[in-house]
Amino acid sequence: GPLVTRAGLVINYQSGELGVLPQANGKIVVIDEFDKAPKQDFKLTYELISTGRCIVHAANVHKIIRSRFVLIAMANPTHGIFKGGEGDLPFDPPLLSRFSLIVRSEAMQGKPLRDYIREKFLHGDVRTRRVFGAWLRSARAHRPKIVADEEKVSSAFDEIASIIEKYGNSFLRRDARFPLHARRVAMAIARAEQKDVDDEVVERALTLIKETLKQWL
């Protein structure tokens, strides 16, 4: 949010100090309270996500910034409840369109909530920074192969094509990039679990994409 750095997400217009996004080239950036970031940063963030480049012209600052990164951002809905429309999020449609997936988080209740409380009470947080760092380095180094059955892969092609046809003219359109997004989801699952992209991973990736669309709509 507004406390990310003195420069905000992209740049400080008075001093020229760079924010986190210009320094995140080749990295994954996770931003909480994205909606609380300085509003002037959103246009520059859109340009960086779209082209990997933005131009800053201000009274004391004239810079060309280049950075390519993967952005994961959390934000609160405009009116307190996210119902699934563009107007529920405090961002312009062009910026929203740059995100491959938009996921609505559900409130935990019932058994999932009790299980979560039980796990935390009994075991605490076992994911220490050192352990997480080692896992992240291993996941990044892992290069999964696609070993799924040809019939399963062919079925996945058909489902991806049907999604593109269904949403091709909507604000959710992903155009020819959608197959690449589907691949990235499958690869991310495989890297996280240190395995190849088998039938199960392909199915889980498609399920994740379809469930995300269902929540958004």
Number of alpha- plus pi-helical segments: 7
Helix content: 40-55%
Order of helices and strands: EHEEEHHHHHH
Instruction: Work out the radius of gyration.
Output: 20 Å
Number of strands: 4
Globular, elongated, flat, extended or rod-shaped: what is the shape?
globular
Detail the poorly predicted runs: none
Beta-strand content bin: 5-15%
Major β-sheet strand ordering: 1-4
Mean pLDDT: 83
* Intertermini distance: 27 Å
Q: Which class best fits the helix and strand makeup?
A: mainly alpha
Largest sheet: 2 strands, parallel
Structure description:
The protein has seven helices and four strands, in the order βαβββαααααα. It has helices spanning 40-51, 93-97, 110-123, 129-141, 150-167, 178-192, 199-216, and strands at residues 28-31, 53-57, 62-66, 70-73. Helix 5 (150-167) runs parallel beside helix 7 (199-216) and helix 6 packs across helix 7. It is globular, with a radius of gyration of 20 Å. The mean pLDDT is 83.
SSE inventory with pairings:
Layout: E1 28-31, H1 40-51, E2 53-57, E3 62-66, E4 70-73, H2 93-97, H3 110-123, H4 129-141, H5 150-167, H6 178-192, H7 199-216
Parallel strand pairs: 1-4
Antiparallel strand pairs: 2-3
Condensed summary:
The chain has seven helices and four strands; from the N terminus they run βαβββαααααα. With 217 residues, the chain is mainly alpha-helical. A hairpin with a 4-residue loop joins strand 2 (53-57) and strand 3.
